[in-house]
Sequence to fold (84 residues):
Amino acid sequence: MLTPSIPIATDADHVWVFVSASGGAVDVVRLAHMPGAPRFIGLPIEAFDPSAVLPTYSPTGELVTGFRWATTADIDTYADLFTA
Fold:
């Protein structure tokens, strides 16, 4: 089972989540948001370029259609999704 942390912002435009597995492994993902909808996805930095302007699959440069990087404003707007 995977367990996410609460979102952590390093600035207003960079929102991250730590994800831990039941076996003890921990990874970090950058959150992407679908504008106008309460949809977020966590993209692992091993496969997606966290420094790209938009979420991009690193090996091919393909954009993640419909999503942009989440901001702290997005998290505030949908705060109920991130509280227990």
About this structure: The chain has a mean pLDDT of 94. The radius of gyration is 13 Å. The chain is about 5% helix and 40% strand. The longest strand covers residues 26-34.
